[in-house]
UniProtKB/TrEMBL annotation:
It holds the Pfam family DoxX. This is DoxX family protein. The keyword Cell inner membrane does not apply. Its main location: membrane. It comes from the Bacteria. The chain crosses the membrane at residues 61-91, 111-130. Keywords: Cell membrane, Membrane, Transmembrane, Transmembrane helix. It comes from Bordetella genomosp. 6.
Length: 147
């Protein structure tokens, strides 16, 4: 087994699993207090916190599925990177400095994760992904997703 394939699979799966907590809090799966906390935070950054909270949770769930299982990984990579950049700006992290350890969190961490996610546009899901199984069965116009 090539170590590069193992490495990329481990990183891809970790990224996906990392989103479980994020979408779970936005869907109220971690309890009422966790949901209230995240809803309160969203009310400080948008005039429409509940729809934006739902949208964020759906984006995070899609990132979980796409990365954990390697399903439409290239699409998940672009979508997740875009989501993270939007979250970076909506959360006003760009005004808090670079270093994530700054009070309120700087823009270093979400930018780094967006870059790591986007790198999967190059590799796709890899050998151990649903992409490898499902995408060759798609119409020719969509097979570029599995290369």
């Amino acid at each position: 087994m090539p170590s590069r394939e193992i490495q990329l699979t481990l990183i891809r799966v970790y990224i996906g699993l990392d989103f479980i907590h994020h979408f779970a809090e936005k869907f109220g799966l971690l309890g009422a207090q966790a949901y209230a906390n995240v809803l309160h935070y969203f009310s400080t950054v948008t005039a429409h916190p509940q729809p934006m909270l739902l949208l964020a949770g759906l984006c995070e769930f899609a990132a979980f599925v796409g990365f954990t299982f390697g399903l439409f990984t290239r699409v998940a990579a672009v979508g997740t990177a875009a989501y993270l950049v939007v979250a970076l700006f909506m959360g006003n992290h760009q005004h808090l400095g670079f270093t994530w350890a700054n009070p309120g969190g700087g823009w270093e961490f979400p930018a780094m994760w967006a870059f790591v996610c986007l790198s999967f546009v190059l590799s796709g899901g890899g050998r151990w992904s649903l992409d490898r199984v499902l995408l060759p069965r798609l119409p020719a116009a969509l097979r570029w997703l599995s290369r």
